[in-house]
Amino acid sequence: MKTKISIGAWSLKQLSLKGKTFDEVLEVAAEIGPDKLIDLMEDYVPMHPHTNMYELIQLKKRINSYGLTINSNWGYTDLNGAVYVDGFEKVVNDLKECIIVAATLGAKYMNTPLDSSLLPGMKYEEAFELYIKIYEELIPVAEEYNVIIGIDTGLVESGGFSSPLTALKLVKSLGSDYLTTTPDFEAWRRPTDDIPKVFIETADIEKTEYLPVDVFEECLPYSPFLHAKFLRFDEKGEEPHFPIAEMMSLVKQSSREHTFCIEYEGWIPDLDPHLDPVIETKKGIDLLKRYLG
Amino acid sequence: MPLGTQFYIKEGMISKELKNVDTNKDGKFDHFYFSIWNQKLHAKTPLGNIRKLTLRIDGEEIESNRIFFVVRGQWVCIEQMPTISEIWWMLREEAQIYVKQDGGISPGIHNLELTIENQLLMFTRSIDSKDIRPRVITNLQSEMSAV
User: Fold this and answer.
1) Is some CB atom of chain A closer than 8 A to the CB atom of B134?
2) pLDDT, tens digit (0-9, with 9 covering 90-100), for A19-35
3) 20 to 30 Å CA-CA from A40: which of A28, A255, A281, B92?
């Protein structure tokens, strides 16, 4: 088992929202990132409303000038909703563009979250078939551009669509090395009173469920890339909301290489916005290194 | 998918001043405005992501046809804003909210209440024109001085 650690731009997003420049964010990522990898998100990428190829290439050069390699770009979710509003072809073409954007950035992965509740009257099977059709269109493009699609979700909807279990089922159904799961630690977090019980997008539903570690183990052979979400560390540098020891023990036994994206999220207004996200992100790195050796 | 209930970092999101302006250069104030910065956690979105915006000043609601969202010099009346998919508001980008008012606003301190309703059809280029998803409502309040 070999592992790498990448810095999710999400971990440092508070710096940008409070007025730091993107160069300052890159300086931090280059300084603390043990493998000099960074995971981008669309806020930093000139891809909306239309991709600007010149700016995209300049962005890649700028990031590389800090000694960083772009591991992934992230974007596009709620495919159920987007297809309903704008149609299948438009959404598929947008996703193909996302793959080509990732390729142009030199990224290995294009991560697209599964977070997409069923529409009123929509059955699980119907949504599943829609996603199969979408990924059947995307896989040849991913192969052509040598970008691996990662399906990410941290949600656990009981009997619902948005779950790593659905991502796993999609990946197994299509059987391509270019379609993988990106397990997000969030799906294995045990709800506690010290952490908000709702997500912004589902503010009317309290998180009460989490997945057993067995599901994490089942995901690993299909998961070259993982989202290591962290919320709040204790005084020993542990993250007690997640079964880290059990999960990392499984990673150590895994036969494939894995890259972790550090997604420290404690900076959000409802958690610990007063803490330094750089220090907290480093705690996440140290924690993984401690467990993975 | 972030935890919690807050879509924006509210602190420092709106300016503290209301400024009178003479947009048609006829020597009389015809609008006033304040600045707003995009501090949404997932920031980069089309203007149409904002499904509704309401503004009250000193307790009085401003008619929507008098409110304009201005980004990079492009004026969009908020009544039409939900239709805009090709103008995007970027991370930490400053925009201005203009209110059409003959003579501008009187000098002094005014209480401003701004409500923004964002769509939850997120991280796509789509705007939720069919209202298929719920909305997230953000309330901002500030004492502003008119100059």
Assistant:
1) yes
2) 999 999 999 999 999 99
3) A255
Nearest to A43 among B6, B85, B91 (CB): B91
Across chain A, mean pLDDT equals 95
Name the closest residue on chain A to residue B131, using Cα atoms: A85
Q: Which of B135, B113, B111 is nearest to B122 (CA)?
A: B135
Confidence of residue A251 (pLDDT cuts 50, 70, 90): very high
Residue numbers of A between 116 and 155 with CB closer than 8 Å to B: 119-120, 154-155
Q: Do B10 and A270 touch (CB under 8 A)?
A: no
More confident position, A193 or A175 = A175
ipTM for the predicted complex: 0.93
Q: What is the pLDDT of residues A46-91, one digit of tens each?
A: 999 999 999 999 999 999 999 999 999 988 888 999 999 999 999 9
Which residues from A are below 8 Å from B123, CB to CB? 42, 75-78, 113
At the topology level, CATH places domain A3-292 in: TIM Barrel (3.20.20)
Q: Which of A78, A149, A79 is closest to A110 using CA atoms?
A: A149
Please tell me the distance in Å from A267's CA to the nearest CA on chain B.
10
CB–CB of A198 and B12 under 8 A? no
Pairwise CB contact (< 8 Å): A81 & B129: no
A160 touches B at CB < 8 Å: no
Q: How many CB pairs under 8 A join A and B?
A: 128
Sketch the domain layout of chain A as residue ranges.
Answer: 3-292
Whether residue A49 and residue B87 make contact (CB cut-off 8 A), yes or no, is yes
Distant-in-sequence, close-in-space partners of A259: CB < 8 Å, separation ≥ 6: A3, A4, A5, A6, A35, A37, A71, A108, A224, A225, A226
Domain boundaries, chain B: 17-146
Nearest-by-CA chain B residue for A187 = B1
Q: Pairing between strand A69-74 and A109-113?
A: parallel
